[in-house]
Design goal:
single chain; alpha/beta; 6 helices; 6 strands; elongated
């Protein structure tokens, strides 16, 4: 059974390749939701929506949908920033404090749907305006939930509790169990 990743994210492709070397990419047309949801629920709803939309167009394939959101408090959702000003505002909000990264994953395979949410607690170092400006000017925050990537090489994160790959965008530990249960690895 061919596995399709319902995402254009280069980070998700790179992470998934660690578990499944041969898979296809079929970006979802699902319109992400968020308003009125808790952050963990929004991540899961979006992952399910993405997987279901692609599965409806690609019968006979296994489909993996995923979504990652950042939340300072479990309620407010930081998606990808619209522009540099919003990226700066997000980074200032996260500076010197803890926040949560939720990734929803949904695997549809062999007539079964398996979905879950993984949470990682992340602690930011206090960030100077100079560091924030330099990071935003690099362009790296612009396609990432919460306007940052733990893997980007900037001294933003002081520590984290939970899955590193979850913060990047795909919780490999949980996904590996889902893929095994579906007979895909």
């Amino acid at each position: 059974m061919r596995l399709l990743l319902a995402s254009n994210s280069p980070r998700r492709r790179e992470l998934l390749a660690r578990l499944v070397p041969d898979f296809g990419v079929e970006p979802s047309r699902f319109a992400e939701c968020g308003a009125g949801f808790l952050a963990c629920d929004a991540a899961l709803a979006n992952a399910r929506g993405k997987a279901r939309e692609v599965a409806s167009r690609c019968p006979g394939c296994a489909v993996l949908g995923a979504d990652t959101v950042v939340s300072p408090d479990g309620r407010e959702i930081f998606g990808k920033p619209r522009d540099a000003a919003q990226a700066r505002a997000m980074l200032r909000t996260l500076s010197g404090r803890e926040h949560f990264v939720y990734s929803g994953v949904c695997l549809i395979a062999r007539g079964r749907e398996d979905a879950d949410t993984v949470c990682t607690r992340v602690y930011f170092s206090p960030l100077t305006d100079e560091l924030i400006d330099r990071y935003v000017a690099s362009g790296l925050p612009m396609d990432k939930a919460g306007a940052y990537g733990i893997q980007d090489g900037y001294p933003l994160v002081s520590r984290y509790e939970g899955s590193w790959s979850n913060v990047v965008g795909l919780p490999l530990e949980r996904l590996q169990a889902m893929l095994r249960a579906a007979g895909l690895i």
